[in-house]
Each structure stands twice: as C-alpha cells, then as structure tokens.
Amino acid sequence: MAVESQRPAPERGAGGGSRDRPNSRRGRSRMLDAYLGDIEYLMRERLWSEAVPLALALPHICVAISDPALRSSPHDYLEWCQNWVRPSRTDSTATVPTADVLFRLAQSRAEVPDDESGTVVPAAALRQLRLRRLARATPLRRRSAISELVRIDAAHEPEREAALVLVDAVRRWYADRGALDVTVQSNLARLAILR
Fold it and tell me: Is the pTM of this model over 0.90?
C-alpha cells in the first residue's frame, strides 16, 4: 500500500485507484441513461403519449440538476433549449423546434402550472427520473439507435419531433457539460440515494 501511494497517478482513465473512478465513467450516468433509454424504448414502440411528456421534462431536469437547489424556471428552460437543442449529429437536415415551441409544448403537458415567479423545483420530473432508476420490472433495454422509420413517424408532429431532439440534446449536454460538472454529479448522487 505504501508503495502504491508514492507512485504518480496513472494517465489512463481506467484504473484501480479511487482517483481514477470519476474519469472511468466520464460521460455516463446510469440514472440518466436509464431514463433516456426508457424514452427511446417508448419511441421505438411508438408509445408517443408516454414518451413525449417524459422528453418534454428533460430540459427542466437538466437545469435542475445543474442548480445546487434543484430549481428550474421558464427562463432557464428556454436558455437550455437555445444552447443545446439542434439537429442530430447524424441528421442535420431534420427540422428542430425552437426553444419557445418546446417550452409551450412542455407547458401544455405540465401537470402542475408554474407559480408566479416561474422558479420551481421540478419535483414531478425529478421523481420520474429517480423512479426510472428504482423501478426495473422490465428487463434492461439495450440502447439502440432510433430507426429512420421512427423518425419518419415523428416528422411533422411537433411533440414527437420535440421528443427526438430533446433526447439527443440531453445526451450531448451530459457528455459535453454534465459529466464534468460537480453540481450535476452531486445532485445525481443525491437523487440516487433518496428513497
């Protein structure tokens, strides 16, 4: 043990030391992966009525887990969408709803309206994120790409298009920012241990 503690930390991302663990899982969150995987599964099965509300809550979830108080607001939702929602890396010709359209769709699907200030803890969305991790009645689903058939099915349906682009945006956001953000990682850990 004493010999290992005097060695410099290895350069690789994967290793046996506890210092290396954050880098070995960089870009991954089991909880977020399960949530996004469930949405993608629902889209592949064409269960849009279940997939769309989960997807429309994604910007609030991302904003909330980026905030130390787990809060989000309409302004934050719009800003997140403006920064992260863009055509898929594989399909740059796809139409992408604007941040305003996404927010209006989310508001139309919201179970509880925002208060006057608009700043709230998106408790229902965070609860769904947490419960997706806890409820594993169905076998774990393999992640596979959304087929072109599903994308065609979603075309010209604003809510369906929104679900597709939001899932892609969250994956991009987490890989580029969330995986490295201390607040995001801390909040995901807090959510993981809440029962």
Answer: no
